[in-house]
Design brief:
The chain has a single domain, classed as Virus Head Decoration Protein, Chain: A. Helix content is 8%, strand content 25%. Strands 1-7-5-3-4 form a five-stranded antiparallel beta sheet, with helices on one face. A two-stranded antiparallel sheet has the order 2-6. Strand 3 and strand 4 form a beta hairpin. It is globular and about 65 Å long. The chain starts with 32 loop residues before the first strand and ends with a strand.
Length: 135
């Protein structure tokens, strides 16, 4: 009998949702669950550390899955409610999250890369009140 001893490493990321200005709109049934089509996201832009951060602007596309908001796509829009781990070894696997479509958000606390997107996308998300957005 042989014993194998090895070291494994698992990384985790605690969701940073300080951009959410309260629980209004996060109650069960108020926001849809979403399946993200990870192949639509770009590594260095959307998940530089292996996670799509909470507060990322997403759109539901024709396939019924969700992808990054690009200004032209989407049947509905919102912000990811949780950090989404991306399986970088298999970018064809989808990932699940919740999408905030109704609530109060601190624009300045959204992920840095997403703030310029929100500045143009906020009219596409009329159910979200973005505090401290400069037009």
């Amino acid at each position: 009998m042989s014993t194998r001893i090895g070291v494994t490493t698992t990384s985790y990321q605690a969701p940073k949702r300080d951009w959410l200005l309260g629980l209004h709109g996060t109650e069960g049934g108020t926001n849809p669950s979403a399946t993200l089509d990870v192949s639509l996201f770009t590594g260095g832009t959307h998940y530089p550390n292996g996670y799509i951060p909470s507060g990322t602007v997403v759109s539901r596309v024709a396939s019924g899955l969700w992808g990054p908001y690009d200004g032209t796509n989407g049947l509905e829009h919102g912000l990811t409610l949780g950090d989404v781990s991306v399986n970088t070894a298999d970018l064809t696997s989808d990932a699940a999250t919740g999408v905030l479509k109704h609530g109060f958000v601190a624009y300045a606390k959204l992920p840095a890369g997403g703030r310029p997107v929100v500045a143009t996308a906020r009219t596409a998300m009329p159910g979200i009140d973005f505090a401290d957005v400069t037009p």
